[in-house]
Amino acid sequence: MTAGPDATPVGAAPAGRGVLVTRVVLGAAGLLVLGYGLVLLLGSGTQQLLAVATWLVGGVVLHDAVIAPVVVGLGVLAAARVPDRLRTPLVGLLVVLGPLTLAAVPVLGRYGARPDNPTLLDRPYWAGYLAIVVLALLAVAAWTARRRPSAGPAGPGDDAAR
Fold this sequence. Notes:
The structure is a single chain. This protein is mainly alpha-helical. The chain has helices spanning 17-42, 46-81, 84-108, 125-146. Among the domains are: 46-81; 85-148.
């Protein structure tokens, strides 16, 4: 698709005033929430600021030193061994389940649970996690089934990307 003189793709309707207003309102609301969070953080004391800084730096290091190389490595392996039609859904699955699993490890392992307070970590976290995994797998299966190429040869006007 090529772009017209106003950088709008040919055949696409230009964004209306409502879209612009919505973007501005959402952006302003986001900035207000960000400012409120910063005010709360700066008022929480040096100890809390150091803990937040450590957590943020740790997250960046973990991402750049562990998560990104693993995702790239899995992508290289998948590119060499997985059929073309499965690559996109598998990358989507990795993008969804990778961070979800990392975020779920503390509750799935029940780290922080205390015998003197049974209300901590008192939910069926494994059931919820497995439900999300099953839903993600079903979404990948549906995507793959929908994108399966037709049995016959492609004729003129057929979309080869289907």
